[in-house]
């Protein structure tokens, strides 16, 4: 069985990492480069950086930031936020990102996935989906969760896969930041209908939440922010515990023996 991945997520605004609850109430938590270096040293498998800057100046700052990150960390990292054209993806990949994540723009114009995958390959394309339950249906949102659509989660995930996405990163808006566990049943359903990896996001509060989404939830990777950023769960401690639970993870021998 392939090792499950642990992925800290860093939402970036003007070079600083921020975090909120249910996509609201953002506050600064640290420097994006320094935090990335720390997670890399701690044994994170990958990182995700999401640019939530609202201005063009902020977008240019993010490209510069990606260059700095790529020069100091030695694990793969994905970048997303504001990617609406092939040229946007090209700039970030040229700056050193290993993968790019598309979200709102892909929902508006699904052929964006085709174009990026055609030029760079599916392994470079992550389709991020922010969705919440509305009258019993999982509906997708755009613009950082502020605009709801009638696009249904499972059908959109299948279409994104068919268009060339190499991974699906699904964030449950209902679970984001509240630390009550991941939407495991929903991730298991996504894993059932897709042949590409599924990254779980939204809801991590304790080690058992990671265990559950990586086992019964059948996710290929678990992404989290708050519990890592605020030191509530350390990546080495998490991996050691997951290994003890029988969840296959990449873990340094020193950590397992500590």
Question: How would you describe this protein?
Answer:
With 258 residues, the protein is α/β, with parallel strands linked by helices. It has eleven helices and twelve strands. Helix 1 (32-42) runs parallel beside helix 2. It is globular. The two termini are 25 Å apart.
Shape, principal axes of CA atoms: globular
Oligomer kind: single chain
Question: How large a portion of the residues is in β-strands, by DSSP E?
Answer: 25-35%
Order of helices and strands: EEEHEHEHEHHEEEHEHEHEHHH
| Main β-sheet description | 8 strands, parallel, barrel
Overall pLDDT level: 91
Summarize the structure.
This protein is of the alpha/beta class.
What are the SSEs and their pairings?
Blueprint: E1 5-13, E2 16-21, E3 24-31, H1 32-42, E4 47-51, H2 56-72, E5 77-80, H3 86-94, E6 99-102, H4 104-108, H5 111-120, E7 125-134, E8 137-142, E9 147-152, H6 153-163, E10 167-172, H7 184-193, E11 198-201, H8 207-214, E12 221-224, H9 226-229, H10 235-244, H11 253-257
Parallel strand pairs: 1-4, 1-12, 4-5, 5-6, 6-7, 7-10, 10-11, 11-12
Antiparallel strand pairs: 1-2, 2-3, 7-8, 8-9
Helix pairs in contact: 1-2
Features:
258 residues, alpha/beta, 8-stranded parallel beta barrel
